[in-house]
Request: fold
Amino acid sequence: MSDPTSTPPQQPAAPPDPPAAAAAPEAAPLPQPIADALPEPGDVNTSNAKGDGLTKCPRCGSAEIGPVPGTDQLRCAFCRFEWVAANFMASVGFDSPIDQLQGTVRTTGVADIDQSASHIITIKCQGCGAEVVINTESQLQSRCHWCRQVLSQQTQIPNGAVPDAVLPFRLTHDQAVEAVRKFASRRRMFALKRFKQEFVPENVVGVYMPYLLVDGNAHGDVAGHGEIKTRQYQRGSDNNKTTYYDADVYQVTRSFDFTVDDLTIESSSARANQDTRMNTNNVINTILPFDTKNSVKYDANYMGDFTSERRDLDVDAVMPVARAQMLSIARQKATDSTRYDRGIRWESEQLELKGTRWVAVLLPVWLYSYYEKKSDGSAFLHYIAVNGRTGETMGSIPVSVPKLLLVALTIGTVLEGIAIAIVANF
Ligand SMILES: [Zn+2]
Ligand SMILES: [Zn+2]
Reply:
């Protein structure tokens, strides 16, 4: 498999692979828009060197390649050869120890988005020469309308549509329909006449959603007051008893290094800015975690019949969310390290980020939407979302107000190597 010219920062520099030999469409060389996008030190080049247009089976050269349902494999429809794209993290050295991370390491897939970049890409079909248009807002592949060959957008373009990595759908369409049915039955949604009438399995659709994964090498400082109960007693007469507690109050501080692995952050603003009066898109965050370690290098052939959404948030835009989640991990960690039976009130907290590394990934989600018209005339869009890897299912329920959907974001976060450095003021 051709490997993009990636040079993991923590490893001895390997000689870059030769430039792609794949037939690039013979367009006249553009006047260097690439100069700006050249990787800076600390960046990892993950741009795809395979070239856009027809991608070919490594065995027979056919361009009819698609995902094998229920697996991480790609298959050639002509010779039936099957293969899996390379593991992404390993391919760029992002499996190296997080506690060594310094500075900000970005892949080209998380490069800042050029707001003026077009979403409409024209690819010249190498089969017949026709010009084929792909709207990368929702599609990364298209069939040539003349020769029927599949054309792929493989190279990263400055609009955030092409990620570094993709986590293929493991759950088949049938399994997703089953998961939606089960969820709806348990919540008696099929008791609603309209829901039952309108439930069409074909409307359960697979979508690749854009996320940013971040590893963090961090230091946390938190301080507050913790209480330990020393005595419990009652005062008063039979009918009018009051229970009292005595507690010692301690000042508690914790200062410690910690790492966060593959924190999974929404990178589509339409999803991140929720208006829960109108829709419940944030159900998708409740079906985390994904086994992001198994993400493979992006290959448009994984798109098959799935649609995709485009990342439109840059690292700077999601940094506050990442920091907030890391702080909450730090607080939790600090709380877990103490034994104050009446709890701790954390009053100050600080996070120092020594290093981060970022990856743009498409994650597989099955969606079923249901449009509810309320009696007062207002409309509400409900979703049932199914994790395309684990089958975890969550949704909003047309019969009640979905308060439960404003749920925590930190599920799916893996903690590693916590070292409590200082324990003070007991
Ligand atoms: Zn083949
Ligand atoms: Zn063609």
Observations:
- Residues 125, 127-128, 130, 144, 146-147, 149 surround zinc ion (ligand 2) (CB under 6 Å).
- Confidence is low (pLDDT under 50) at residues 1-39, 276-280, 399-426.
- DSSP finds five helices and 18 strands in the chain.
- The two ends are 59 Å apart (CA to CA).
